[in-house]
Amino acid sequence: MNTHVKDMPQTKAKSHFMKRAWYVAALSADVGPEALFHRRLLDIPVLLYRKQDGAPVALHDRCPHRFVQLSAGKRNGDDIVCPYHALEFNAAGKCTRSPHGTGAIPRAAQVRSFPLVEKHGFIWIWLADEEPDHSLLLDYGPLEAGPPTGVGYTYMYLKAHYEMIIDNVMDLSHVDHVHGEIITTRGQLSPLIPQLKEGDDTIGARWEWKQTPPIGILANFLPEPDVEARHFVEVNWSRPANIQLTIGATQDDVPLGLDHCVGQYDLHVTTPETETATHYWFATRRNHLEHDAEFNAFKIKAMHDAFVNEDFPLIEAAGQAMETSDFLSLNPVLISSDAAPVKVRRIVKKLIAEENAD
Ligand code: FES
Ligand SMILES: [Fe+2]
After folding, report:
1. Which of 36, 74, 262, 293 would disulfide-bridge 221, Cβ 3.0–4.6 Å?
2. In this protein, which residues make up the domain named Rieske (predicted)?
3. Nearest ligand, CA 170
4. Hey, where are the domains in the chain?
5. What is the tens place of the pLDDT at every residue in 35-45?
6. Which protein residues have their CB within 5 A of the ion that is ligand 2?
7. How far apart are CA 228 and CA 291, in angstroms?
8. What tens digit of pLDDT does each residue of 208-222 get?
């Protein structure tokens, strides 16, 4: 008996990724006025470019005719001309011109376009089928609270599942064992049990300690760089893969917070490229030496190099050794500092299951 396709139950493909979220697609600075910028996000090929008025556009980077990447094509004003048979698409993904036959445009000649928001130095993309939920794009305003010479942005890429990066930032107990002089706590942090903060689909962890001399990234900005200082670091995760981190130190009798300490506000953001590779952005705004462009460039490079040279080899090697992206299925040994990252993993799993159940 033949079953017609229309009689089959229509099931939505299950995603391994959380879709109902704003992901970073690119740094604003990375998509120039003329560029046709290709990037794979959540396993979807995406073309990013800017209209002549500067507004960013995201289209599925696949021509609906014979599936060539549109990013290999040319611009015609705000439209994109496919490099293969020259069908032309506008910024909404609608085919506007065919040089073939009568020039009639097939109704199916439509490319998917994705909603974007440009904010805080990033282009954020909504990849879910549903209408975008703007309440899910949080405020990272501290990145913009100061001069441009007091903030740095960098892009990194690694061959590992994105949740391994969340683990790495939510569990900072590795800093004394992995990192060199600039961010070691000289053994003070890893014995501490982090204080947890659980919100509505958010998880935070905080550590407070004393060290002599103070942490390398802050010591020279304290009154006495060789003398003991009180420190704090706090990480706060929110969906899908965004972690705000604040760190500070003081030698005065003041509350341990960024308002009173020498410190910085950082944002770690990841977007899966595939199940096994991740785009990773790091941005940092400091509250000291804010007008020094040369120091700014030095600082973001030093942080970038620390992640790439010290964290990434371990994360990539662990990912390969796991041979699965389902970390918890391996029954990992858990230590005190795992409370926050494991809670994040459980929320991510729950949110993905909820999406797939709808
Ligand atoms: S593949 Fe794009 S026009 Fe043919
Ligand atoms: Fe690290």
Report:
1. 262
2. 22-125
3. 2
4. 14-134, 146-357
5. 999 999 999 99
6. 311
7. 27
8. 999 999 999 999 999
